[in-house]
Amino acid sequence: MNSIPPRSTTSASKAELVERPRADWWKGEQEMPFARATTLFPRCDDGRPVSLHAIYRYSLAGLSLGDGRRLRLRRFKSGPRWCTTAEEVERFKIALTRAHGGDV
Predict the structure, then answer these.
(1) Where does the pLDDT of residue 3 fall: very low under 50, low under 70, confident under 90, or very high at 90 and above?
(2) Which pLDDT tens digit goes with each residue over 24-83?
(3) Is residue 56 a contact partner of residue 73, using CB atoms and an 8 Å limit?
(4) Which phi and psi (to 5°) does residue 17 adopt?
């Protein structure tokens, strides 16, 4: 009979510790649903605001940084809504600007 050794619950791999965000990273920040977060991004070239769908894409698939990495907007669930924070949107915009060689 093949036996699979039990997985250790007391020790986590180093990669797992690095990649797992704190569950409450948004505490102390200005929380907002995605619909309101669209107002914190610059408008599109045609003058329309960034779409709600784009905010979902930023949080799920992220944006390519050109070197194989992807930048994702952090999010959390609050009741039935996905939310982020004003501070996280600002960090996201700064990281994206720096990744493409812009000055912040």
Answers:
(1) low
(2) 877 889 999 999 999 999 999 999 999 999 999 999 999 998 888 999 999 999 889 999
(3) no
(4) -70, -35
Give the other-Cβ count within 10 Å of 96's Cβ: 17
Look up the domain containing 76 and give its range: 29-99
The amino acid at residue 5 is: P
Q: Is residue 1 part of a domain?
A: no
The predicted structure's pLDDT at residue 67: 86
CB 96 within 8 A of CB 71: yes
Location of structure tokens 């050109």: 66
- Number of domains into which the chain is organized: 1
> Are the CB atoms for 67 and 60 separated by under 8 Å?
no
H helix or E strand, kind and range, residue 27? none
Q: Does residue 58 sit within a domain? A: yes
Q: Is the pLDDT of residue 97 over 60?
A: yes
Side-chain-side CA neighbours of residue 40 (13 Å): 21
CA distance 12 to 53: 35
